[in-house]
Design brief:
The protein is α+β, with helices and mostly antiparallel strands. Among the domains are: about 70 residues, MutS, DNA mismatch repair protein, domain I (3-Layer(aba) Sandwich), CATH 3.40.1170; about 100 residues, 3-Layer(aba) Sandwich (MutS, DNA mismatch repair protein, domain I), CATH 3.40.1170.20. About 30% of the residues lie in helices and about 30% in strands. The chain has ten helices and 24 strands. Strands 7-8-9-11-12-24-23-21-20-19 form a ten-stranded mixed beta sheet, with helices on both faces. A hairpin with a 2-residue loop joins strand 13 and strand 14. Helix 2 packs antiparallel against helix 3, helix 2 packs across helix 4 and helix 7 crosses helix 9. The longest helix is centred in the N-terminal third of the chain and has 13 residues. The protein is elongated.
């Protein structure tokens, strides 16, 4: 079967195009019964030896068509790799114009009996991206009843797929404390020595960590407990107020205000929040008592608008999979939002 190259598409007669459309949803019906294929699907079919493309009456090789398509379409090489991979997985995929590169159907479904499952973005691993763009794209795809899928191509042409959505984490542990404990600031930690106060903070609401009968709190935990009136703190120069402890926290920990905002929101959702250092993230989060369950989430807090690279996202997502937890990017704004990224096999 042969088509005719016409700039940014390949034209086929009804006889040539109808079998492709009916059997694999390739091409787009035109008025008069003819069909057109975009360059991505035509190049894939030439690669598979299922289609011939003629230019000025001469059959084009795969190399010639690939190079022509690369000169006409931005990021053609990336889109070709993604399209090829999805098709070889047995899924129908259609190329799109605009913010999304493709629409993808669930395996076994087609355009005549279903609607797309995913909006797909095809990107290189070297592409920088703004976290705020994820939020807008997730919202748009959810409004349309779809899921957002990023197909990320590395320098060797291998692919990783990342499904993204919003999440609303909730736990069952009240943050409130009845009573006020006394703590002492020592370097970048606050220690609570009085046994009843240790019991009050640790046994009931799981703040801090007990070490030899003494409760150790992080600066962020201490600031939060001061905010809710459950802790007073004394430093080398006497009693500290909330503002002075927060100011001190900024000198000993990077991104202090952002982390404190994320911690405050998570605790307000009934979640138990612990340090995430051993997982390479800001926090690990439990829905119930840490004594009775494993951490459900790893939390990485980010500013409302921050530029990141795909290798960093991939590292965090793959690490969370390895420890069987979900990774949430906590986007800190006036209204804190949580974006969940999952590595998937389409």
């Amino acid at each position: 079967m042969a088509g005719i190259l016409k700039g940014d598409c390949v034209a086929l007669t009804q006889k040539e195009g109808a079998p492709f459309y009916s059997r694999g949803n390739y091409g787009y019906p035109q008025s008069g019964g003819s069909f057109e294929m975009d360059l991505i699907e035509a190049t894939y079919l030439v690669e598979c030896d299922r289609l011939e493309v003629l230019s000025n009456g001469k059959k084009m090789t795969f190399e010639e068509l690939f190079c022509h398509s690369s000169s006409v379409l931005d990021d053609f090489d990336i889109k070709h790799i993604v399209y090829r991979d999805i098709r070889q997985r047995g899924c129908i995929v259609r190329n799109e114009c605009g913010e999304y590169d493709m629409t993808m159907y669930e395996r076994g479904k087609n355009i005549s009996n279903s609607r797309p499952q995913y909006y797909v973005r095809a990107v290189s691993e070297r592409t920088s991206t703004n976290i705020s763009s994820f939020k807008d794209q997730i919202q748009e795809t959810q409004n349309r009843g779809k899921q957002l899928l990023y197909a990320v191509v590395d320098e060797e042409g291998d692919l990783g797929y990342y499904a993204m959505s919003k999440d609303n984490p909730r736990g069952k542990v009240p943050a409130e404390i009845i009573g006020t404990a006394e703590g002492r600031l020592v370097r970048d930690r606050v220690f609570v020595f009085e046994p009843e106060s240790c019991e009050l903070l640790n046994s009931k609401a799981f703040y801090g960590k007990m070490i030899s009968g003494v409760l150790q709190l992080s600066i962020i935990e201490a600031c939060y407990l001061m905010r809710i009136g459950a802790l007073t703190v004394s430093g080398p120069d006497g009693r500290m107020d909330e503002a002075s402890l927060e100011e001190y926290g900024r000198t000993v920990q990077e991104e202090f205000d952002m982390r404190l905002s994320a911690y405050t929101d998570l605790r307000g959702r009934g979640l138990v929040v612990k340090a995430g250092f051993k997982y390479g993230t800001h926090f690990r989060v439990y829905e119930e008592s840490p004594d009775d369950c494993h951490a459900r989430y790893l939390i990485h807090s980010v500013p409302a608008s921050t530029i990141t690279m795909w290798p960093e996202i991939s590292r965090i997502v793959r690490l969370s999979m390895g420890v069987k937890k979900d990774i949430l990017f906590c986007r800190v704004t006036d209204r804190t939002e949580y974006l969940i990224f999952k590595w998937v096999r389409p």
